[in-house]
Amino acid sequence: MEERYFPGKIEKKWQDRWAESKVFEVEADNTKEKFYCLEMLPYPSGRLHMGHVRNYSIGDTLSWYKRLQGFNVLHPIGWDSFGQPAEQAAIKSGVNPRKWTEENISYMKSQLKKLGTSYDWRREVAAHTPDYYKFDQWFFLKMHEQGITYKKMTQVNWCPICQTTLSNEQSSGGVCWRCGNPVEKKDLEQWFLRITDYAEQLLNDMAEIEAGWPEKVLTMQRNWIGRSEGAFVDFAVKDSDEKITVFTTRIDTIFGVNAIVLAVEHAVIERHKQSFDDNIKDAIDNIRTEKMKANDPGVEPEKIGIAAGLFAINPFNGEEIPIWTANYVLIEYGTGAVMSVPSGDQRDFEFSRKYNLPFRQIKLNAEGVEVSTDEMTEADEAYSVTVNTGEWSGLSSKEASKQMTAFAESNGFGKGAITFRLRDWGISRQRFWGAPIPIINCGVCGAVAVPYEDLPVRLPDEAEFTGTGESPLAKNTEFINVPCPECGENAKRETDTMDTFVDSSWYYFRYCDSKNEDQPFETEIANYWTPVDQYIGGVEHAVMHLLYTRFWTKFMHDIGLVKFTEPVKKLMTQGMVVAETFYREGEEDGKPKKIYFNPDVVEVERDSKGKIISAKSEEDGQPVLIGSVEKMSKSKNNGVDPDEMINRYSADAVRMFILFAAPVENDLYWKQSGIDGTERFLRRVYAMVWKWQETVKKSPDDEPLEFSNEARALRRKTHQTIERITRNFESFSMNTSIAALMELSNQLGEFKSEPDTASASDLFAITEALNALVVMLTPFAPHISEEMFSALTGSDEGILKSDVRFPKYNAELAKADEIEIPVQINGKLRSRVLASPDASQEELQAMALADEKVQSNINGMQVVKVIVVPKRLVNVVVK
Ligand code: ANZ
Ligand code: ZN
Questions:
Q1: Cα–Cα distance, 220 to 804 (Å, whole number)
Q2: How far, in Å, from the CA of 240 to the mean position of ligand 1?
Q3: Mutation test of ligand 1: which of 223, 247, 332, 348 has the most ligand atoms closer than 8 Å to its C-beta?
Q4: How confident is the model over 841-868, as pLDDT tens digits?
Q5: Backbone angles phi, psi at 131, to 5 degrees
Q6: pLDDT digits (tens, 9 = 90+) for 767-794
């Protein structure tokens, strides 16, 4: 150890040493308890951003902690390297997507290495390499055999800007998830995976992971799957032999139906379109275009519709009702047709009011009153008691539903049903930079699976990027033209590639056995490492990636690849790293007067969640306004560059600061001066170790019989810190752990003894504290900790090779110091309680009132007031 702390030198030294000694390389070993710590794999966009650094710092810290606890820790990384940006770069600037991707990977890998993250690099995988996507294709074939895949002509979501099809998830709210532009519809033949076969199981199995996943993620998945119990009911179309089947969750309201409303895409509309008047045709076209327009998620667009001039018959009462088509009925849900019940459904209510469609009351309100429909200002969606519903009047809504469903079933015009909002997963993409779908289309045999032994279906090295929307593979005759594997006739390869969410559905299983050439992984090895014990990533993956990977695992279970059905035991969704912009009050040339771009220049007061309450300029102390808070990003040029931070401070300081600055689940507001403080802390600890190293090395292990007060206090602090941090790791409170380490180091720093004169008891306490501090600091700042550990022990092997364990606390020693607090009743001393010197007013009051002597003295009198003077006195006033 050198006297001066040179982070650059130390960090390089330990990174090299870790690599040489292979400390992070692990193997499955049934004699050892495993821990699988996983961070969401990055897309190789070019450079790491602070969001990455946060993600990997959290995971790396946890991995170190688990290693120090003796676990066999799997901590791998890889690249989600297929996908849009590489292809966009190819379209825009003609670079080869493979070259672009691989250069990015190599740069980002060097960044990760500079950060000192403890990965087992031998297990690295990249989705765009043939030895990886070979198994995307392998899985496709397995699913094909099991009937999970199918091809169908569909209207797909199409982003005209990105020139690609999008899944429902990717076009949520009618906008493209990548570029935010409106999504259009287009007819294309597409491959689908039957994720809906697993809908029920995806819901039910949530019970298994409930304890380890954030509630908000589970709720989002539940809503996404959207299970509804209800019934299908057939309405005959008047003067025709057609019928319209609706899906309803409230068959009990069927006597209140005032219209049948169809999605514009509904088959009945399509069939009758030719005979419609021009004004109806125009209106339908208008609804169509309105539907395609962007609508903000969560905002309901204005309801528009048109009567089709057709009529339907209500099978329960024979009533003739008009058939309409409107934008608020979705073709993708239920049957694409609804029975409109304005008194019971708010959407139908708004629609009927707008178009003056009359309707009747079919339920009592919550008070048991039959409200006239004229008086209604909104629909009453509650379950209550039916009225005006023929022989089913006077029943509870639920009972009516039951009986009416049975009636419909026995008369052959309806059926109880469960529907799901979840749609099958469309995986076809008209793109080059993805895994080719292993299918050969033969004029004779149809869609033929590529034989397993012919995998991988390799992507050609070059392609023509036209940006027209057709897969660039479609232009590559060498790729396309192949003999049919079944009949040998000339046939053509499928030119679509797979959605990149296929790659990320199973990548962490591949880490377990990343070099396997015959299968995605060996079951025995995967059954040792997986399920993942802790997964860490962004909440934006709550429904797509995290639902797909649960589905994938269930499929893998069904074909015997793994023995469980839930892949991730615990999930942590970290907050974003955000940039803040500040303005002065007032405007200049129509623009905000002055912008402070980096909280550096302001003094900010925040609430507990990190939201700004007030801010002042550091220049002149004047208040400034918070302008915007946005995700740090390279394109917005509002970010802090990890490289620059590492060079200026150190990897240890960057990692530690990013964990210290906010609780891991919260958004993190970057504040430059914060990292200065973290760096100073590391220097202080380093200096302390420098000062004490020789003495500590010689310090005897035997525990002295007596301790000075100061030594006892230090030992207490040491054990309390161990206890706190151990507990914090269970709850992911990394920021408070760092605060605890800072407190311990402060107390050490204030210790009065000097190395050459320290008494045996002082020396023992200091040795214990320093050793514990260094080991506990390791997960957060591994490089400097290794350096200090080797100074304190004289061993150069490294912490892990020395089999050091995370310290254990002694509960007796950790016990808080207690002081006696007198308790008075109406000013007279009646008792004393023992409390910690830090006890709060509330705690002291509660302790005093719970005291036996105090209680017997109060003896039924009324407590008027309790006066608490912390550390000194409690006075209970009674009358
Ligand atoms: C009549 C009715 C009366 C309804 C009532 C509700 C309340 P969830 O619960 O989300 O599954 N619906 C059915 N298919 C639809 C579609 N393709 N587009 C828009 N809305 C559709 O919703 C089920 C209800 O949503 C169904 O029950 C139907 O309206 C409507 F007092 O039928 B209901
Ligand atoms: Zn054939």
A1: 42
A2: 25
A3: 247
A4: 988 999 999 999 999 999 888 999 999 9
A5: -75, -15
A6: 999 999 999 999 999 999 999 999 999 9
**Of the candidate ranges 171-175, 206-210, 337-341, 421-425, the one whose mean pLDDT is the lowest:** 171-175
Least distant ligand from the CA of 492: 2
pLDDT of residue 430: 86
- State the burial class of residue 701 (Cβ atoms within 10 Å of its Cβ: 0-12, 13-18, 19+): exposed
The domain 577-631 is placed in CATH, from the list 2.20.28, 1.10.20, 2.30.30, 3.30.70, at: 2.20.28
- Interval 345-373 mean pLDDT: 95
pLDDT (0 to 100) of residue 629: 65
What atom in ligand 1 is closest to the CA of residue 228? 11
- Residues 814 and 723 sit within 8 Å (Cβ to Cβ): yes
Q: Is the CB of 336 under 6 A from ligand 1?
A: yes
d(CA 434, CA 428) in angstroms, rounded, equals 10
CATH class of 228-419: alpha beta
Q: Are 847 and 834 within 8 A, CB to CB?
A: no
Q: CA quadruple 740, 741, 747, 749: dihedral positive or negative?
A: negative
For residue 452, is it left (φ>0), alpha (ψ between -120 and 50) or beta? alpha
User: Where are the CATH 2.20.28 domain residues in the chain?
Assistant: 577-631
Domain with CATH 3.10.20.590 in the chain: 819-878
Cβ atoms 694, 770 nearer than 8 A: no
Q: What is the CATH number of domain 819-878?
A: 3.10.20.590
Instruction: Transcribe 543-581 into DSSP letters.
Output: THHHHHHHHHHHHHHHTTS-S-S--EEEEEEEPPEEEEE
Residue nearest to atom 18 of ligand 1 (CA): 329
CA of residue 445 to ligand 1 center, whole Å: 42
pLDDT at 733 over 80: yes
Which residues face 867 on adjacent strands? 875
For the purposes of burial, counting CB atoms within 10 Å of the CB of 308, is it exposed (0-12), middle (13-18) or buried (19 or more)? buried
SS3 content of the chain, % helix, strand, coil (to 5): 40, 20, 35
Cβ-based neighbours of 639, under 8 Å, separated by 6 or more: 49, 50, 579, 632, 633
How many angstroms separate the alpha carbon of residue 447 from the centre of ligand 2?
A: 8
- Which amino acid, 166? L
Fold of 653-665+672-814: Isoleucyl-tRNA Synthetase; Domain 1 (1.10.730)
Residue 164 Cα distances to 185, 188, 302, 496, 847, angstroms: 11, 11, 28, 11, 67
Residue 249, ligand 1, Cβ within 6 A: yes
Instruction: Tell the CATH topology of 33-148+194-218+442-575.
Output: Rossmann fold (3.40.50)
Q: Where in the chain is the domain with CATH 3.40.50.620?
A: 33-148+194-218+442-575
The model's pTM: 0.85
Structure tokens at 118: 């403890």
Cα atoms found within 13 Å of the Cα of residue 811, Cβ hemisphere only: 1
